[in-house]
Amino acid sequence: MTAILRPVAEDDLPFMHRLTSDPDASGEFQWYGFQNPHRLRERWTDNGMLSDDGGALIIANGDDRVGFVQWTKQVANRASHYWAMGLIVAPEHRGQGHGTQAQRLLARYLFDHTTAHRIEASTEVTNVAEQRALEKAGFTREGVIRGSGFRAGEWRDGVRYSMIRTDL
């Protein structure tokens, strides 16, 4: 089976909360402390986690939830915007190519349904697996962003990747 993206359903909320609030499920690079247990439900109730400014979709493999992708609108200037995207895959599904496939699917979805010309993704410099996944998905490494993210008590360097519409 191959991964697909689908809208978030109400019964997906506990799965998403687990991936963002359980240190064992979130993993080394996604653990930012315990999260408000009502935040995801509030977003889902408000707009089903889909809006003009961003959204979230479940990564599914058949009937299995694999993880989820998110994107947010970033203003480039008065005339344009681009998307910043990220994902998290459940620990039991990591290393199977679902993240690479989901990033490729999300990029295609955003280019097909919005006018944005650019999509960005970032990860920590030590997250080599995610860097490989982004490159396999067709993203181009742009460079290191020094001290760009705070996690686990310290500032960490990041790596920025991008894809533009003409890369597909």
Structure write-up:
The protein is α+β, with helices and mostly antiparallel strands. 28% of the residues lie in helices and 41% in strands. It is built from 5 helices and 8 strands; from the N terminus they run E-H-H-H-E-E-E-E-H-E-H-E-E. Helix 4 (98-113) packs across helix 5.
Briefly summarize what is shown.
With about 170 residues, this protein is α+β, with helices and mostly antiparallel strands. The chain is built from five helices and eight strands, in the order βαααββββαβαββ. It is globular and about 35 Å long.
Element layout with pairings:
Elements: E1 3-7, H1 13-21, H2 23-26, H3 39-47, E2 50-51, E3 54-61, E4 64-77, E5 80-89, H4 98-113, E6 118-124, H5 128-136, E7 140-151, E8 154-164
Parallel strand pairs: 5-6
Antiparallel strand pairs: 1-3, 2-3, 3-4, 4-5, 6-8, 7-8
Enumerate how many helices there are, as a single number.
5
Number of strands: 8
Percentage of residues in DSSP E strands: 35-45%
- Could you tell me the mean pLDDT? 94
CATH topology: Aminopeptidase
The gross shape turns out to be globular
Instruction: Point out poorly predicted stretches.
Output: none
Specify the CATH architecture: 3-Layer(aba) Sandwich
How far do the termini sit from each other? 23 Å
Q: In CATH's first tier, which class applies? A: Alpha Beta
Structural class determined from secondary elements? alpha+beta
Question: Element order, helices and strands?
Answer: EHHHEEEEHEHEE
Number of domains: 1
State the fourth-level CATH superfamily: Gcn5-related N-acetyltransferase (GNAT)
What share of the residues lie within helices?
Answer: 25-40%
Biggest beta sheet attributes: 8 strands, mixed
Radius of gyration of CA atoms, rounded to a whole number: 15 Å
InterPro entries: Acyl_CoA_acyltransferase (IPR016181), GNAT_dom (IPR000182), N-acetyltransferase (IPR051531)
Family: Belongs to the acetyltransferase family. RimJ subfamily.
Keywords: Acyltransferase, Transferase
Pfam families: Acetyltransf_3
